[in-house]
Amino acid sequence: MPHSPDNLPLALYSAAQVRALDARLIAAGTPGFELMTRAAHAIWRALRQRWPAAGAITVLAGRGNNAGDGYLVAALALRAGWRVQVLAVGDPAQLQGDAAQARDEALAAGVCVQSWSECAALSGVVVDALLGTGLSGAVREPYAQAIALLNASGLPVLAVDIPSGLCADSGQVLGVAVRAQLTVTLIGLKLGLFTGLAVDWVGELQFADLQADAQLVAAQPFTAQRLAGRNVPQLPPRPRSVHKGQLGHVLVVAGDRGFAGAGLLAAQSALRAGAGLVTLATRSEHLAAAQARVPEVMAAGVASANQLRALGAQASVWVVGPGLGQAAWGRSLLSAALCSQALQVWDADALNLLAQGGISMPCAAVITPHPGEAARLLGLDSAAVQADRPAAARALAQRYQAVCVLKGAGSLVAEPGGNLLLCEYGHPAMAGAGLGDVLAGLIGALLAQGLPAFAAASLAVYLHARAGEVLAEGGRGLAASDLCAVIRQLLQEQSECLS
User: Into which CATH architecture does domain 244-494 fall?
Assistant: First the structure.
């Protein structure tokens, strides 16, 4: 899914919160049928803009208010001279309230409504008005078969509010889901449209607020916020008299045998993101490569926890885990991190060792699991984490009393108090080795320069994803080290070094 423009609202809602907002708007004096009519006009405008020469639509209608939106769109298309058919997967006679009124208006306008069957012929742009945001369990028949045939048709699809079969709260595919080219979501942005598998099903996302009263919307609780250019934390400008000792000292603890690159990437990232001093603690045999690759980074070979404690005594931030391994060497170094009072970022094998039990997280830490690591930390499998990424991120933050960055499509940043931010930026070209090491080092650098943990993690996730988008213009083959220079440029644009 292309990321959304920054003029979209920041608030992301659960399905229940959107229903509550809808009820508040109706109670405040906007009739439900008026909201449905506004929705139909917004959907019809979006459809004509995307497919102006289509000339025909098929509306697949269910039994709820989504069906009502679909019936009204059908009436608008017929009045505009398009060929229109409505295939009713749910019995039209069972519609109630505003949806029943919409059905009656469509019939009065001359719209042809037929019962859906597996032999029905789809044509034109298909409007998915089957299932709304209230879906919680697996899609049942005949809806599942209708969705499967729609996806196999190859026709363009516009989804009303959310592609049928997607969970509005988590982005989980509930058995089967409509694969849309365009989704027009209504009243409030749903969290499930932005994370997990949803990004492959939503297509282009457009938003229609239905002219909702801004004060009522502002008073409605939300479940998360989008990370966008206008709400990303900023580093303050540096005074002209600043020196490196005032900009933090990042210690990167990483790189068992065979994994030297992980530590180098994290250290290079911390350096390029503005940390005053960076030290890499790694295997002795990696020192020559480290000093040749990044001469600005201090590199030290460590063989024991005692050596690491002495080395890290002056560091303000520890980044622990990239390429650390889970053997005796990595375990020993992790035990030293547990004794440090410095701010810490735990990544990769530090998290795998944490999941094995017997150790506790230090205070004021940031953890950066991918779904597999998150699953081990929560005692689940990866599929369960991906099925509800927002819940997993919050559970990790609460369990470990740490800021949690749950990586993946629609990366999430959660803090123990419940605040949740979602980053919809990024690109499939970023699916490669080492990018997590760069992110860990970047978070460490921002912590070293004084940002609180939640702000540092949020800014780092945003810069990392945006840098990936910039580099993805070159296509496949993006190397993790490529990100460092672009992150530096984006950080300057977002937080000028000198005001």
Answer: 3-Layer(aba) Sandwich (3.40)
